[in-house]
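Sample intake sheet
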Amino acid sequence: MTSPTATLPSRTASLCRRLGRTRARRRRSLLAAVVTASLALGAGSARADETFEFEAVGSDRRISLIGDSTLAGVRWYADYGELRRFDFVLNAESCRRTIEQSCFSREGYRSANVISTMRSLDGSLGELLVIMSGYNDPVGSIDDAIDTVVDEARRQGVAHVVWLTLRTSADVDYSDPQEQTSVDTFREFNERLVAAAEGTDGFLQVADWATYSTGSGSWFEYDGVHLTPSGVDALTTFLAGTVERVLAGEDVSPASAPWTLLVPGAEGDVVVAVQEAVMAAGVEVPGGADGVYGNDTMIAVADYQRLVGDLQVTGAVDLATARSLGVYSDGETEEAVEVDSVTPVVPSTTGVPAALAASPDLTLDAEHQDATAESSAVVVAIAVTVVLGLLVIALVTRRRPPGERPGRRPPRAAGSRVHRVGP
């Protein structure tokens, strides 16, 4: 008779084969999430199913942030960055939906959706609410999701809702567990979000994270939406700057205009016109006016925006930059170019993306590369350990009699615990 010990490798191999038949995208996303959560737990982050509360020294400004796993990176890495300028509460959960029942999360339970979380924090949202959600929302729920959040925020006396656009660039490879969402869904969400903001007189404002993060692949994990440590820094800086502007009375939402935002991936005569105008202004465009809006053109446009001085430095040609370059006049009535892979949203922050503020070739310096390589090695080692541990647990669990197996933890309402931390 073969001993249990002797059959362990074969059972492990069988389990690995079954796991290998799942979609590669889900496997990569789950592995990244497990590693991220493991690293964050060691860093003293707020636990899952917990509201994080921070009280800044001398701050009389209170805000709130509610989101899905794209915001949860802030919690996983316990890095709140520039947000520490404010008193704030933060509740970010994996697999969260806005108004529909959330999917079962990678952290072992089904979180409350955004609207339920808002209600559980009634009286604690402050004067401004940031929403970073939508990646798990089916397209049929988008309009109701936006309207319901806005109505609830008004009921609670919040002065402004700032909602981040969803990423739609070429590096995005994410879908919710039921595969109801995709880049096309995210693009439609953004369009409806911008349209909804137009009729609220500044109550709902759109912060264009999608455009701000264009070209900054190092900020994101495999799927292009979940944050790396550098992405957490970028996001908290972006959020803090945007909140400051809104609290100061600015409207950060994009204005409607017959101009389609130009970012990497665009092609055509209008790109040639932009490249020629940038070169005429004395800014070099490597490769010349080839009609392709690549990274070199993006960097050149960013240099031009810095040179002019009163333009948002994003590397994207928004309406103001198009006017400045002379490639668009207010008398035009047709869109300058069709870009299927880009959401036409004007950037809404004065900050500069790290990819543009760094060296012209958009590469990390040697020291940063070494640090990244070392970090990657640590991540791989932890990932291997975690996966092996999960396999062993799975095998042991299968050998237990049915009556001895632990039951699944029942759903819990988000905000059931509050984690308070001083500055």
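Comment: The chain has two domains: 28-254+416-421, 269-344. Residues 1-45, 332-376, 396-416 have pLDDT under 50 and may be disordered.
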